[in-house]
Amino acid sequence: MAKKAQLVLAYDLGGTKVHAGVVDSNGTILDEVRVPVVLEKGKAAVIEQLAQIGRNYLKKYPSIKSAGIASAGPLDPKNGVLLDPTNFVSEKGTWGRVPLAKLLAKKIKISVRLENDAAAAMLAEHWLGAAKKYDDAMILTLGTGLGTGIIASGELVRAGRGMHPEAGHVIIHHNDNSAPCGCGNLGCAEAYLSGRNFTRRARPRFAQPEYMAKDIANLARKGDPRALAAFEEYAHYMAIAIHNYVVLYAPRIIVFTGSFAEAADLFMDSTRVHLDRLLLRRRKGMDFMPKLAVSKLHNKAGLLGGAFIALNRK
């Protein structure tokens, strides 16, 4: 008799939305919801929002015993603590240290595990997606921020103290006043490459200050030179960032995910051209040029990653 699939509760928590659902141990999403996160109401309201979503699913799927949260960081995955997340800011201020896993577990009465959203997305891609056949891989989540997750020699890469490597905050242009980052520094990779920062940097090229990334992408696909120039600048900085990641982690594949990855057709080819020049010497002894790919998990890598960490509590 075939073993019955295990069900878990999964969350993908970002600076603009909560994506939550029920996932089985085969990676099938049985139920899901995507709603704006109530960040403006403060951390207590967000935790209660997560709890209410969880309660609703637990009534419908009472066999669920564990939950996984893929969240923007920085965070301490071992202890389930958010460490003043960079993009969780509202009029009520920043969050500081929040033992999110413990607080949510108390509210929904099941075990909860916390993981960096990009690390979770990387695990999902290795489990089900574009990196399934690669033991050396990296993911770039392009959304409110720039998340990075790395698998090297088949294992998720951790930094010292068990932390997640915040490679989106590698500085690529020191003291660039045009590139303020939410972490408080200038010139971080995230300040150029997140979807939100692309939009912020591109808007001054147009007379319409309300333009969003999708509007600029639509103009670029129609051949608008201002929009094309914005994406060319983006490709230039993307290549610089990837060069730095290649010399650190040597991935064979880099997967783009997140809402802004939908515009990859507008920057990926140019990124390859710039990256080829930057890696010229490193293509001779061993070819360090990684494959660049867009996730085929349809912006669900974070949710599936949350499920993976709930299912694999090592």
Summarize the structure in words.
34% of the residues lie in helices and 21% in strands. It has 314 residues and is α/β, with parallel strands linked by helices. The protein has two domains: 7-120 and 301-311, ATPase, nucleotide binding domain (Nucleotidyltransferase, domain 5); 130-294, ATPase, nucleotide binding domain (Nucleotidyltransferase, domain 5, 2-Layer Sandwich), CATH 3.30.420.40. A five-stranded mixed β-sheet has the order 3-2-1-4-8. A five-stranded mixed β-sheet has the order 11-10-9-12-13. A hairpin with a 2-residue loop joins strand 10 (146-152) and strand 11. Helix 3 (117-128) packs across helix 9 (301-311) and helix 6 packs across helix 7 (225-249). The longest helix is centred in the last third of the chain and has 25 residues, at 225-249. The protein starts with 6 loop residues before the first strand and ends with a helix. The model has no long low-confidence stretch (mean pLDDT 95).
Compact description:
This protein is of the alpha/beta class and 314 residues long. 34% of the residues lie in helices and 21% in strands.
What structural category arises from helix and sheet content?
alpha/beta
**Which bin fits the share of residues in helices?**
25-40%
Q: How many domains comprise the coordinates?
A: 2
What is the name of the CATH architecture of the largest domain? 2-Layer Sandwich
CATH superfamily of the largest domain: ATPase, nucleotide binding domain
Poorly predicted segments: none
As for the CATH topology of the largest domain, it is Nucleotidyltransferase, domain 5
Radius of gyration: 19 Å
β-strand percent reads 15-25%
